[in-house]
Amino acid sequence: MQGVKRKLVYVTFYELIGLCLSTLGLAYLSGSQATHTGPLALMITTVAVLWNLIYNTLFERWESRQSTRGRGLGRRVAHAIGFQLTLVVYLIPLIAWWLGMTLWQAFVVDLAFIVLVPCYTFVYNWAFDRLFGLPSSALAAA
User: N or C, where is the chain less crowded by C-beta within 10 Å?
Assistant: First the structure.
């Protein structure tokens, strides 16, 4: 599977799993009910979906220009960490506003996600590539 179809399947399953995990995680970390953190998790997921599509497009564009093909450990780690660190820029202000806290408090709440999401992203990407194959940007040139 390649192209837009691959990206849509990737993002849909990535974010559905992430939505469930983040609703429960935010409720636990903020001491709020899941009914209060669920809409926040949905907004986070919406931001993440949009950023995921943009980030993966940019990453694959960069990847297609590299002389080394494939997705080894280093490239997978760079992808996961890069995605999460850039996403945090959008999410911390949103979390602070929704939960009525300072940016620092929101950062502390988000810290667990900052650590766990790259791990989740790494495992998800590995499993997705095993199930659906590598994207054309990571395949050896014909």
Answer: C
pTM higher than the cut 0.85: no
**Euclidean distance between the first and the last CA atom of the chain, given in angstroms as a whole number:** 17
CA dihedral of 50, 58, 1, 123, whole degrees rounded to 10? -80
- Are 118 and 81 in contact, with CB atoms under 8 Å apart? yes
Residue with tokens 């996600």: 113
Coil, helix or strand for 1?
coil
CA 104/CA 109 separation, integer angstroms:
9
As a whole number, mean pLDDT of residues 10-32 equals 85
DSSP secondary structure letters along 99-135:
HT--HHHHHHHHHHHHHHHHHHHHHHHHHHHHHH---
Q: Over the stretch 6-15, which tens digit does the pLDDT of each residue have? A: 888 988 898 8
